[in-house]
Design a protein that fits this description.
Number of strands: 5
Mean pLDDT: 83
CATH topology: Beta-Lactamase
Order of helices and strands: HEEHEEEH
Strand order of the largest sheet: 2-1-5-4-3
Number of domains: 1
Length: 125
């Protein structure tokens, strides 16, 4: 899996050099695998993974309260980093990028890659 994720990051960085990492989390929010380029921007992967899955679960509950039961993707931007995350099957996927990454290409790449990754993850379910 690690080799596959490294190749995904390399391909993505051809068109989006702002991409910094990709994290795959189990249904419990634990890191299944992750890759990062440059300095380690995942911090503590267990803590980061738990917070990402908690945030997505919370957003899904908020949408359910508004009558929409599906939270496909979430985006958050900080001073230095941006994060696009979503649920694929039972797994969570998070894409890390520089904060100045263009939102449109980032979402397009996330959506394209999440479907590819979902097919790979089927082997592990």
């Amino acid at each position: 899996m690690r080799d596959y994720l490294n190749s995904v990051i390399e391909e993505m960085r051809i068109f989006l050099p702002e991409v910094r990492g990709l994290m795959i989390l189990t249904p419990d929010g634990l890191p299944f695998d992750f890759v990062a380029v440059g300095k380690n921007q995942c911090g503590d992967p267990i803590l980061t993974g738990g917070l990402i899955s908690f945030a997505l679960s919370s957003l899904k509950k908020a949408l359910e309260g508004l009558g929409d039961a599906d939270c496909e993707v979430a985006y958050v931007k900080g001073k230095d980093l941006a994060l696009v995350a979503g649920k694929v099957g039972d797994f969570y996927i998070a894409l890390l990028a520089d904060a100045d990454a263009k939102l449109g290409p980032l979402f397009m790449e996330f959506n394209r890659r999440k479907n590819e990754i979902a097919k790979i993850l089927e082997q592990y379910v």
